[in-house]
Automatic annotation (TrEMBL):
InterPro entries: CB (IPR044068), DNA_brk_join_enz (IPR011010), Integrase-like_cat_sf (IPR013762), Integrase_recombinase_N (IPR010998)
Molecular function GO terms recorded: DNA binding
Ranges where the Core-binding (CB) domain occurs: 82-171
Signal peptide per UniProt: none
Name by which UniProt lists this protein: Integrase
Alphabetized UniProt keyword annotations: DNA integration, DNA recombination, DNA-binding
Any one of the GO BP annotations: DNA integration
């Protein structure tokens, strides 16, 4: 049973009985047509619940649940005001120990400084919209990068990826209430990197001339060493290493592709006569060692 009532000021209220209890809520309107529409929707929602097609959550606000077509089960939660600096501070404080690699956390804090420099440390994070992010992209794209070029779009994407990761964490903590507003962002076109090449291929291009110093450095960044060159490099490291761990560490990196952080995390128990275990962030990799 459900019905409408009008109070002395003309505001319309909706009353109904459900589960043996009486409920009354203001519809915050004086227009009868709107109120009657809400009444009919309520009656339909009660019918859906009684037929089992709509389930009321445990401890839900019954009136709000039925009046919202099952979308709300309590008063909407409002995120507390928090600025950009506080957001990052809270994020790092609540991260469990060792949940982030040292280099990852260091990189995120560098990104945080750039974000605060342009957006401002007191920027109210709940007010962030796509236009704010686009202005950030446009400003960063004009700043100097390496080798006389402006900052690469790859770097800008990484900075915003950091902000998105922190935002997604904040979404789970109810510090923000909406998805990260990066849809539709436009980035400057980046320069395509050269493909991986051998030493001979690179020196042949340089000998032909016409390359800037930056372009030459780009080529050497893409050097692919052949097996004999890897062996030559390792022999050089072995002869000049000033600490006993350097050569085996570089040797392992050269033959496995393991990162420095993964190698530094190695333990004696990770090695035996025929195998070694590399502890990657999300998995273990066991490598067979060929003993000469």
């Amino acid at each position: 049973m459900a019905w409408l009532q009008t109070d002395p000021s003309g505001n319309i209220h909706l009353s109904f009985r459900f589960g043996g209890k009486k409920f009354k809520r203001s519809l915050k309107t004086q227009e009868l047509s709107k109120a009657e529409g809400r009444l009919q929707r309520l009656i339909e929602n009660i019918r859906l619940v009684e037929s089992g097609r709509l389930e009321v959550p445990e401890n839900a606000d019954i009136a709000m649940f039925l009046l919202s077509d099952g979308r709300l089960d309590g008063k909407p939660k409002v995120a507390r005001n928090i600025n950009l600096s506080e957001l990052f501070q809270t994020f790092f404080e609540q991260m469990p120990d060792d949940s982030l690699e040292v280099n990852t956390e260091k990189g995120m804090k560098i990104h945080e400084r750039h974000l605060e420099r342009h957006l401002g440390p007191r920027f109210r994070i709940q007010q962030l919209i796509r236009e704010d992010l686009q202005r950030y992209v446009n400003k960063r794209a004009k700043e100097p990068g390496i080798r006389g070029r402006t900052l690469s779009p790859t770097t800008i994407r990484k900075e915003l990826a950091t902000l998105r990761s922190v935002w997604n964490w904040a979404l789970g903590e109810r510090l923000v209430l909406t998805p990260f507003p990066n849809k539709g962002l436009r980035y400057p076109k980046g320069e395509e990197k050269p493909r991986f090449q051998t030493w001979d291929e690179i020196t042949a291009q340089i000998s032909r001339g016409g390359l800037s110093d930056a372009e030459v450095e780009d080529l050497w960044d893409c050097l692919f060493l052949q097996r004999s060159e890897v062996d030559e490099l390792l022999e050089f490291v072995r002869t000049v290493a000033t600490h006993p761990f350097i050569y085996p560490m570089v040797f392992t990196a050269a033959h496995t592709g393991a990162r420095r952080s993964e190698l530094l995390a190695s333990k004696l128990s990770d090695f035996d006569a025929t195998h070694m275990t590399i502890r990657e962030k999300k998995r273990f990799v066991v490598i067979h060692l060929e003993v000469a």
